[in-house]
Every structure is written in C-alpha cells, then in structure tokens.
C-alpha cells in the first residue's frame, strides 16, 4: 500500500490553539471552535475571483443544456449531494441539472464505505452511468485534494473536454493541477487533528452555496433577491410562493393567490401578470421569449 504523507497537508496538521481542548470547560471548547470557524469566511474571501470564474463556467454550461456535477467521497461527497438536492425545490430546476456523486453510491451517504474513495476507476464508471459529457461541468470536492476517486473523475472529465473545477483546502494538492479552475480556501489546521468535516467542510459548504446560488441568479431564477422559481411542493412552499408574489409586486394576498391559481402555481408568471397587467398565457409567452428573466421581460 502506498504511503500517504499526511504531514504535507495543512488539513491534517496539528492546531496549537486547541492542544489543551480536552482539559477545557464546555464553554471554553466552544470558544476555541468558534474562533477557528471565524477564519473560514476570510479564507473564502481570498478565493472569490476563482469562485467567480467557476460560476461563469457553470452558468454558461446551463445555458447550453449542460449540467453541474459534484463528485466527492465521505463528507465532501455528502456536501455535494446536499447542495444538488436543494436546487429543484429552491429554483425549480430538473433533478438532472445539478447532480451529486459520492464514492460508494447511495449507501455511502449514510454509512462509510471502506476503500471506495481509493478507486479512481469507480468514479469513471459513475460518470459514464449519468452520461457525463463535454457540455457538463465537473466540480471535484476533497478537503485533502488527493482523493483517488475524485482525481479519477477529474482526469476523465478533462480527457473528454469538460470544464473541471477543484474544491480543496490544501495549497499543494494534486487536484489543483488537474483543474481548469481551482478553488482553494486555506482554512488551516482543524480543532481536532484531521477532522476535516469541520472547518474544511464548512468552507466547502459555503463555496457550494455560492456556486449554485450565483449560477441560478445568472440564468434568471432570481428576481431582485426573491426566489421566483420556487416550486409549491408542500404547505410551507405554497405559502412562500404567495409571499414572494406579494413582495415582488406589492399586491394584496388575494391578488397573489388569484394570479398563482391562474398561472398554474408558476411564481414568475404570476408576478409578470400583476406587474404588466397581462393574462397568464401572455405572461408565459413573454417570459419564454426572454429565457425566464423577469427583469428583461419588464
């Protein structure tokens, strides 16, 4: 078995600020964790230009019927799946538009699958199973930046001409050299040595939030700061749709409900109907012509 040099990875190094954490009061433990967590957003701030490049590539792919594919192992894989699964209810996207893949498959979401992350060929099979192609964007996620499963996926994606993005937390990671765009927030040593689900995981979650949120804004899924493609799939979201229509148009609750009923619960159409005094069909046609951008339609 190949020797993995953990000492070369910042995410695996020992944190001098927490060396006595096992001898601290509960409140002191929390203060140490909180102080370390404060560093995460500042690390991401340094990476904003690279995150912006990634978002431009993702939104361009979306406009060309391409998809965003996250791939990772363990915590990194779960974070990708979490972000992907939130897109359909939040932005009304197809479940196929943003996909999260994890080493070991669905079982690995809930339970660690031994050795799955060490198999680069498995990643290629997983990508082929979703018909991954050159229109798609791949985001490889790994705190260490060396996970063989993720590296196998990135090499395959690059070989077929896809845009490849790396998201890791070690500055000398092998993943960085495989990426067209590298996002590398350096959050430093963890409070508990090697527990990269903590600061590194938080950094990954914040970056993934940015990737999908900004990409959805750029393809017209947001009007002002309102989530205007929200799908009414439960009681809370029905209420959220009504609230969004009211806030976007400054109309009464009754008028919002009536417009949503007429537009078959399509939030954007209801908003345009009210703002432009159009009927549902007219609003639908105008929106389609402007690729779903309310502001352009107005």
Kindly describe this structure.
- Helix 7 links the parallel strand 4 (163-167) and strand 5 (181-183).
- This protein has helices at residues 26-45, 48-63, 74-91, 107-110, 120-129, 148-159, 174-178, 199-218, 235-249, 253-262, 267-276, 280-289, 294-297, and strands at 68-72, 98-102, 137-141, 163-167, 181-183.
- The chain is built from 13 helices and 5 strands.
- It is globular, with a radius of gyration of 22 Å.
- The protein is α/β, with parallel strands linked by helices and 298 residues long.
- It is 52% helix and 8% strand.
- It starts with 25 loop residues before the first helix and ends with a helix.
Quickly list its features:
13 helices; 5-stranded parallel β-sheet; 298 residues
Summarize this entry quickly.
The protein is an alpha/beta fold and 298 residues long. It is 52% helix and 8% strand. The protein has a five-stranded parallel β-sheet with strand order 2-1-3-4-5, sandwiched between helices.
Strand order of the largest sheet: 2-1-3-4-5
Main beta sheet strand tally, sense and closure: 5 strands, parallel
Overall shape: it is globular
DSSP summary, beta strand count = 5
Query: How many helices does DSSP assign?
Result: 13
Element layout with pairings:
Blueprint lengths: L25 H20 L2 H16 L4 E5 L1 H18 L6 E5 L4 H4 L9 H10 L7 E5 L6 H12 L3 E5 L6 H5 L2 E3 L15 H20 L16 H15 L3 H10 L4 H10 L3 H10 L4 H4 L1
Parallel strand pairs: 1-2, 1-3, 3-4, 4-5
Helix pairs in contact: 1-8, 2-8, 3-8, 5-6, 9-10, 9-11, 10-11, 11-12
């Amino acid at each position: 078995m190949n020797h993995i040099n953990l000492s070369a990875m910042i995410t695996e190094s020992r944190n001098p600020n927490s060396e006595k954490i096992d001898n601290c009061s509960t409140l002191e433990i929390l203060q140490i964790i909180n102080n370390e967590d404060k560093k995460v957003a500042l690390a991401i701030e340094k990476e904003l230009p690279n995150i912006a490049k990634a978002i431009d590539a993702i939104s361009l792919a979306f406009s060309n019927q391409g998809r965003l594919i996250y791939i990772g192992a363990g915590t990194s894989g779960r974070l990708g799946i979490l972000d992907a699964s939130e897109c359909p209810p939040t932005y009304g996207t197809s479940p196929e538009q943003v996909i999260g893949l994890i080493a070991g498959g669905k079982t690995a979401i809930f339970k660690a699958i031994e050795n799955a992350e060490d198999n680069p060929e498995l990643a290629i099979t997983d990508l082929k199973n979703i018909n991954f192609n050159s229109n798609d964007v791949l985001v490889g996620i790994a705190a260490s930046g060396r996970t063989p499963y993720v590296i196998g996926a990135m090499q395959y994606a690059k070989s077929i001409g896809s845009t490849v993005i790396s998201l890791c937390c070690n500055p000398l990671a092998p993943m960085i050299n495989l990426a067209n765009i590298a996002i590398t927030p350096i959050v430093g040593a963890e409070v508990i040595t090697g527990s990269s689900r903590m600061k590194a995981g938080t950094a990954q979650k914040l970056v993934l939030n940015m990737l999908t949120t900004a990409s959805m804004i750029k393809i017209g899924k947001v009007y002002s700061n309102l989530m205007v493609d929200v799908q009414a799939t439960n009681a809370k979201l029905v209420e959220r749709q009504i609230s969004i229509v009211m806030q976007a148009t400054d109309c009464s609750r009754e008028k919002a409900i009536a417009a949503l009923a007429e537009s078959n619960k399509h939030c954007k159409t209801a908003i345009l109907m009210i703002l432009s005094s159009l009927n549902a069909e007219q609003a639908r046609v105008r929106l389609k012509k402007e690729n779903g951008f309310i502001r352009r339609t107005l």
